[in-house]
Please model this.
Amino acid sequence: MKLRTSPWRATVAAVLTAVSGAALVPTTAQAAAPLVKTQAPGYYRMMLGDFEVTTLSDGTLELPLDKMLTNIKPAQVEKAFARAFLETPVESSFNAFLINTGSQLVLVDTGAGNLYGPTLGKLLTNLKAAGYQPEQIDAVLITHLHPDHMGGLMTGDKRTFRHPRARATSSSRPTTPRSNNSAAHRGVKREPPVRPPFHHQEVARKKR
Model:
């Protein structure tokens, strides 16, 4: 999950080394695409070195951040929210990142799919609005296995990203939710990493 106040540039920079690794990205790219360099609602582009990074909105969800935050007193939370002109629940943004290396398209996280209701699951719409199609994606990197990051791997009982060489890779187990009151992470169980290629039945079972 990405909140509007998260330092997402640090997240993007952290995955770039992994993006260039042969273990995560197919050595033969099939979806080379030109840099687009335009903006529109639903996505935001920036250049990071020679890579074009497009932030894709999956939508927003209202979260009870006053109950999710830990190691802070309720009065402190209320005061901090007041300074930022915020009230709870806070409308929070969920984003994924498309990295165009010039020869490969790498998607970092896939959004929530249909797991969290109608205000999320917008990633595919915004991916297409940004000028790309799901079948162009060469590789999918899952930062961690919470449903708001991997829910978009499947559309119904089909793979969302059907490029013959596309792979979904996660390098870590899901983190333990920081609070039992977390609306986004409640009930998430620890699972082993997703292994390439896509495991249709396993991912579909997790969605049900």
Q: What stands out?
A: Strands lie at 43-48, 51-63, 90-100, 105-108, 139-142, 154-155, 158-159, 168-170.
